[in-house]
Amino acid sequence: MVSIAPWWLPTGHMQTIWPVLARAATELTSSNTVNYRRQRCTAPDGDFIDLDWLDAPPRDTLLVLFHGLEGSSRSHYALSFAEYARQQSWNYVVPHFRGCSGEINLAPRAYHSGDFEEIDWVLRALRQQHTGRILVVGVSLGGNALLRWAQESGSQAAQIVNALASVSAPVDLTASGLVMGQGFNRQVYTRRFLATMKPKALKKLQQYPGLFDAQELRAAQDLYTFDNVFTAPLHGFVNTAHYWKQASAKPHLAQISVPTLVLNGLNDPFIPASSLPDSKSVGKFVSLWQPDNGGHVGFTQARSAGQPCALSNIVGSWLMRGEPDHG
What we know:
The chain has 11 helices and 8 strands. It has helices spanning 12-29, 76-88, 116-129, 141-153, 157-160, 173-180, 183-207, 214-219, 223-234, 240-247, 311-321; strands spanning 36-42, 48-54, 61-66, 91-95, 133-139, 163-167, 260-263, 286-289.
């Protein structure tokens, strides 16, 4: 397997955390920052989502990025792909899942790991606007939801997009959910996610009193409990176990009929390597790439601390040529 990590980032945790910190430092010091133009779109249910566009003249290729859990157009990977799109002279847009653009959404729902219906109407709307090539990247939660969209869409997916890639997608949500509730993951990553997820959920409760039990939500210390109180019931699932099973992309990878890259590092602290798919579980349109390193949405090939992330180059090269650029 190809190693995607410099020697000074030896562990999955370090490979996960360092690109986030490096990007934050770059944003503070760089004069070449990424500026977006925001477009608000009305969803089929009357709610809204916000799309952030990298302003540029109309181009033949549009790159679309669906962010991860509590992500946004300012996430380190979104900014990296924005810079890549600018270098390639592509158009670029980041649709925000509901509640992730800085403003609470209106409907009694939020977003979840299998939110393929949301992705479907967004991509169809973008296809109406854009006549050229559409390439799509989904990161972490957004990657699993994007794969679920491709699975549910069947042959229609290829009429809407030309190729797609999932990055660090937890395609077995049960396996990933359980490890996120343990040890370092629970104390660091899960605590960080809940620090923003809980306040948003409580704002939703202000909009819709009685939507869920506030005391149970405040007491949640892991994603399993949070999903049991909030995510699952708000989106039509019986409970967390039902949600994680129904929303997981892994059982349906053979149904995808558009060129697809599924990229997962074997040392991803969020995703047990044993839960990843193998070649027998995918169809001819799906390429699995599981390098030894990469962490969770890390994939740093940098030779120095001044080069924070090669993820966009890796994935962009695959989307263009159908194979990864190993560098």
